[in-house]
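Bench notes, afternoon.
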Amino acid sequence: MKNALLITAFLFILPFKTVYPQTAKSYPADVELVLQKAKNNRKELEKFLNYCLESKDSLKWKAGCFLVANMDIHYSETFYWADSLNNKVPFNELDYSNYSLSINAFKDLSAKTKLHPIIRKEYDIDAINGDFLIRNIERAFTDWRKPVCRNLAFDEFCEYLLPYRSMTEKLEDWQKEYADTFKLSESIQLGASIRTIANQLNNKLGGYFVSSFSYEEKNNPVSFLSPSQLLFRKRGHCEDMVNLTALALRSQGLPCRIDMVTYHGTSTGRHFWNATIDENHQSVPFEGSKSVEEFMINREPSKVISITYSKQPNALACQLTSIDIPNNFMRMQNYKDVTNQYWRTQDVSCSLFKNYSKQFAYAAVLNGLSWSPAWWGKITNKKEVIFPKMGCGVVYLPMIYESGKLIPAAYPIMLLDTKEQQILIPNKINTHTIVMKEQDKYLKYRQGKLYKLFYWDNKWVLLEQQQATDKTELIFENVPTNALLLMVPEYTQHKERPFIITSSGERIWW
């Protein structure tokens, strides 16, 4: 039976074509391009590639080329503390026996001199070590040969088990420490499914790491904690939890990726979670420390993307230069649109206000009282645009990115759960009176505070402001019909949501 399984696994991976260099100094074109970018560090990448070549393992060679060909987009975001003169101030939280002591030490240090972070990007091709890559690929291939991953396709292996990093965390040799920290007993792994092992690891993570998003400010100047910081702090925000989970699962030989809502469509912020690949090549999403059976998205997403290691030709940054793209996730080259795996979707089409010379328009959602571009669509005939596979139950504002600014390019489009679309053009001739009653989770008045009502007409136009009394409602007259509305209190935390009033007087929040 064991030999039959090995034969099946071997046949499954045979179809991939092997491309060997003519000599140790001749590489596929995409690999050679990255080697040229590496300049002084080329020798380290060649050391790794030559190791893969000399192994006489066709798949190891192909995997090595995959890592190097896509390495130039990956980097570490690191920082150090500096004083008012930008002199480096030595401080390393890992020098202390626990996180609480390091926090107290930093408070003492910052009381003596004002500190600020100096953030740096260090690209992998400039800093990575050949021996590090060799250890990484050997670990990955050893894990791939284990029974639990025997059905994992080569492309799945490359994207979600082979990579030595997941996001922009500091480049570290994390594998052994994570493998030891999250090691599961052989009895648990023997004959178990990927879902079962993922649940066992999640149980372990639940007792190891605390998500502090809801009650603690992010205490780190860069986007992601380093692998060693994650183990040291044992706490962090949503993005830290998913990074820890990805590294933990990969350290145990399970494929793992990170998926994220780019921006919520009906609330503020974004959201991350993990996904593994089961024996049937099906995506299995879950939140770290929770059972895979518990997963669900509670709020409407504008878009859901899956982070990959490799460059994706459909990513916008593979079609435009960064300067022509809004400064958010869209400047990345390594992600896929997976919205329709999680939510109802529909193409959103519209005509723009005028002809534009730009190639792309952006579908933005209101997030933190600002319009944040969640996706893009290609402009045809200079004026028509289709935003593909957008999450239903969301209001989108078409925008153009010009000279570093986002400019409204059409009226908001309401995409209903039924997939129907309605353009919200405020009718300032046919107005109506609306009664804004309190509503749980959306609107609660504070006596004596001012509340401003706005409607959208290429900008937020103030209609009226009123002071709340002891009553539980405010009445506004001469409100445009078919308008996107927004009520903002003087004590705003920028989490207010827009709404519409239907012809029947119903209030619908977005």
